[in-house]
Amino acid sequence: MHFGDLQTVGLNEVLQNEYPDAKKIILTDETVGSIWIEQLVTSHSQLSKAEIIQIPEGEAFKTIDVCAQIWEALSEYEIGRGDVIINFGGGVITDMGGFIASLYKRGLSFINIPTTLLSQVDASVGGKTGVDLGPFKNQIGVFSDAAHVFIDDQFLKTLDEKQLQSGLAEMLKHGLISDPSHWKDLQSFDPSNPKGRLKLIRTSVKIKRDVVVQDHKESGVRKTLNFGHTIGHGIEGFLLEKETPTLHGFAVAWGMKAESFIAYKQGLLSQTAYESIAAFIDTYYPKCEIESKDFKAILKLMYNDKKNKNGHIQFSFISEIGKGIYDQGATDVEILDALKTLID
Ligand SMILES: NC(=O)c1ccc[n+]([C@@H]2O[C@H](COP(=O)([O-])OP(=O)(O)OC[C@H]3O[C@@H](n4cnc5c(N)ncnc54)[C@H](O)[C@@H]3O)[C@@H](O)[C@H]2O)c1
Fold first, then answer.
1. DSSP 312
2. CA of 271 to the centre of ligand 1 (A)
3. Which end of the chain is more exposed for a tag (fewer CB within 10 A), N or C?
């Protein structure tokens, strides 16, 4: 992991020392490409001859079909095992680029340069790579670690407010599952203000890495990172299928509120803790873009979540602010009641 300005932390030196004869491929999306690619390439001599593959932006393009097109392009560029892919973009690019690199010719090295807050604090770290299958999030994927991750928060200066809010949701999750002081610090955090921002990003990344190091393949404690994601993915998948996509972090924020409600109703979480989480999410995030007639379809999607066991939906809750718990269940009625809290 490298934190700070790409030139200061030595992206060029890493490429020169570790991949001196490798072909470099940069995978990016159209927005990041149009804003940042020229600066990236011209300020790093090792990237001056890089092949650039640019795809349309957004979750709708995180598909196996797009991967197949990119594998074709890699083949045309005669990319081999010793070459390196640089994933330059948000979580869609780092998830999909890691997946593409890991499967092409049984595995190429890849480097992540995440450019959204969400991908800096979460998606680019921890080795989960993959793509969606229709409305089902991240159904096809592999665990595969980036050789390096470079986190430079200067990229966030061109990110809009909504995307910053989306990234903050995963940071809030880190505080809620493992560190009450991080949760507290984030209450007054303005992600658009660079002052102190990298320090909070580092804290979030550290929390995630500490969890992942203990349980890389998610058989135990790593599941705590799924807090908010069971209901969140249900909502996100539902809205994606309706072609009215929402931001991943918004869905996670709504999911954290709804799942905290279930934990509170089950007597696992105090009312005070639930109310403080709900109050922050209600103030900071827009209202959830679903209606009660959508609940059944969302529940159906949740029954296809890859984390389920023996046909039962599996949840990761919190039992207090700063303490994640996993392998929890809930009845359909409890889930539907929780979804109601998002539209009341
Ligand atoms: N692998 C994991 O552990 C993990 C964890 C959390 C989320 N994810 C995945 O991450 C994805 C969401 O990531 P995301 O929110 O970064 O989405 P994204 O990659 O779609 O990026 C969001 C938008 O921001 C634009 N953008 C990116 N960087 C920019 C910049 N610096 N300036 C201006 N615009 C910029 C992109 O073009 C895009 O339109 C989801 O697919 C989610 O499933 C993965």
1. B
2. 33
3. C
Report the nearest atom of ligand 1 relative to the CA of 119. 16
Give the position of tokens 């986190």: 151
Q: To 10 degrees, what angle do helices 229-241 and 332-343 make?
A: 70
CB distance 110 to 101 below 8 Å: yes
How far is 277 from 280, CA to CA, in rounded Å? Answer: 5
CA 57 to centroid of ligand 1, rounded, Å: 9
Structure tokens at 35: 């804003």
Mutate to test the pocket of ligand 1, among 92, 166, 236 (most ligand atoms within 8 A of CB): 92
pLDDT tens per residue, the chain (344 residues)?
A: 999 999 999 999 999 999 999 999 999 999 999 999 999 999 999 999 999 999 999 989 999 999 999 999 999 999 999 999 999 999 999 999 999 999 999 999 999 999 999 999 999 899 999 999 987 888 999 999 999 999 999 999 999 999 999 999 999 999 999 999 999 999 999 999 999 999 999 999 999 999 999 999 999 999 999 999 999 999 999 998 887 889 999 999 999 999 999 999 999 999 999 999 999 999 999 999 899 999 999 999 999 877 788 888 999 999 999 999 999 999 999 999 999 999 98
List the residue whose alpha carbon is closest to atom 41 of ligand 1.
92
